[in-house]
Design a protein that fits this description.
alpha+beta, DNA Binding (I), subunit A, 2 domains, 9 strands, 20% strand, elongated
Length: 198
């Protein structure tokens, strides 16, 4: 339960990250975040711990009591937005390619994939967003140091630099928890984040 995901909002109620419940509890105890319930009320750690844990299955045990795992936390002072530039990393390449071999199309675990240079480095290929793709080990061996067309292979799609952060890609699929929906639904998001007139 402590490794389950928790949505992190900046102080404008905009999603900025997903952390583990363990990290969320640390943020609550350190008073840098507040737990958000289904009615969008916020709680510090002590008031959150006092809520009835009996109504939910997602709890962790403390000495003498159970505490609900928050599904959403609100940062107290952080008012920045997620970065627009995407860091060039293996994880982000896997996220961009949706953990799918870009040659055979099989979706695999991260450990079953590696990074392939479309134009091999021995032939002058650079290590850039536009020249690397996720590839299964079998396809990588088959291609070797050849171009895909020389190996009789075809890319599913041309590699490009993503325009959004991997965090946005992580939540692009189905929303994991009901408590997250208002922060990803644009109508609800606009309702909660539009500046009110005085």
């Amino acid at each position: 339960m402590l490794s389950s995901p928790v949505l992190v909002l900046n102080r404008f109620y905009m999603p900025v990250n997903i952390v583990t419940a363990r990290r969320a509890f640390c943020m609550l105890v350190a008073d840098v975040a507040r737990a958000v319930d289904e009615e969008h009320r916020t709680f510090d750690f002590s008031s959150w711990a006092e809520l009835s844990a009996a109504v939910r299955d997602d709890t962790v045990g403390l000495v003498g009591r159970l505490v609900r795992v928050p599904r959403v936390v609100l940062l107290s002072t952080y008012d920045r937005f997620p970065k627009r530039t995407v860091r060039f990393s293996r994880l982000n390449i896997m996220l961009r390619d949706r953990h799918t071999c870009q040659y055979c199309g099989k979706k695999m675990t991260r450990s079953a994939l590696n990074i392939d240079h479309v134009v091999p480095r021995v032939r002058g290929g650079q290590t850039t967003w536009e020249n690397v793709v996720a590839s299964c080990h079998a396809c990588n061996r088959k291609k070797g140091s050849r171009l895909p067309e020389e190996a009789g292979m075809k890319l599913l799609k041309l590699p490009v630099k993503p325009r959004t952060t991997p965090f946005v890609d992580l939540i692009a699929g189905p929303i994991r928890y009901e408590e997250w929906k208002p922060f990803f639904n644009m109508v609800d998001f606009s309702y909660w984040n539009v500046e009110l007139e005085k």
